[in-house]
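User: tokens in, sequence out, please.
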């Protein structure tokens, strides 16, 4: 039976997305809330990429940082929570973030993010980039929030993506896994798909992104899930399409190797990401 491994609903449990309209009567729709916050986050991403590219920084080992965002849009209280195992790179990143110009405030102020996570990790081998990154922003508004069982909704996500996933026409001689992050809007529309763990195969990564895109729209977010959107980390693998040949002993060795590789992928990803 084909299995697509769901990764990080841990994120959804550890970092709730708050219903801002329940905290303040902003008069904005969920779509407007999502776009305002997304555009602000992308401004930070662009500024950080430019600052680090100007330093000709090349990331060899994943690193993670966290901190606060001031009312003026300045990154403050920056802490290194996962080492890059290279002090020079860590100092360049920390100093670059601290010297970053303030992004200014956004309106309405209740949408203003108050904290951030930044993950930097090696770019795909086929890329000309020196690094890849994920920048997350969060509102720390404390509203009444609960996390009901939403396994039925997750099964719907898996079913939609699985029905579109078919890498059989690609080179499947070796195990490949791509981990993606995407946002689900209240309407169920998928947006902002990014690769957060590359397979180092451009065609495979592109197909993974296209598969998520084809799966939109999903069912609308359930009413008990609060906020304007929810992000999901999801992995796609060619496990069921791997080429095998020979006798049963060879096949057994092959699947044992698959298990080792599979575990290695996830252990490396989890070690890079301290929230998993």
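Assistant: Sequence out:
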């Amino acid at each position: 039976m084909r299995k697509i491994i769901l990764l990080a609903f841990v994120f959804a449990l550890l970092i709730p997305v708050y219903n801002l309209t329940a905290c303040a009567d902003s008069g904005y729709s969920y779509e407007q809330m999502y776009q305002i916050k997304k555009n602000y986050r992308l401004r930070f991403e662009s500024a950080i990429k430019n600052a680090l590219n100007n330093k000709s920084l090349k990331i060899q080992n994943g690193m993670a940082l966290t901190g606060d965002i001031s009312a003026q849009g300045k990154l403050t209280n920056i802490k290194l929570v996962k080492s890059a195992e290279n002090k020079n790179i860590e100092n360049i990143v920390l100093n670059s973030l601290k010297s970053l110009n303030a992004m200014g405030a956004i309106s309405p102020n209740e949408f203003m993010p108050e904290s951030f996570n930044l993950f930097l990790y090696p770019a795909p081998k086929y890329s000309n980039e020196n690094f890849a990154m994920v920048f997350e922003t969060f509102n720390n508004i404390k509203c009444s929030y609960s996390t009901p069982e939403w396994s039925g909704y997750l099964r719907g996500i898996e079913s939609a993506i699985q029905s579109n996933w078919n890498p059989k026409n690609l080179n499947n001689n070796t195990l490949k896994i791509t981990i993606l992050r995407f946002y689900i809007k209240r309407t169920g529309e998928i947006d902002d798909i990014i690769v957060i763990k590359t397979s180092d195969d451009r065609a495979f990564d592109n197909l993974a992104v296209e598969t998520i895109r084809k799966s939109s729209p999903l069912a609308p977010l359930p009413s008990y899930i609060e906020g304007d959107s929810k992000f999901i980390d999801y992995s796609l693998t060619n496990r069921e399409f791997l080429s095998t040949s020979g006798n049963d002993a060879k096949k057994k060795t092959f699947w044992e190797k698959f298990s080792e590789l599979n575990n290695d992928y996830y252990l490396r990803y989890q070690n890079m990401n301290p929230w998993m």
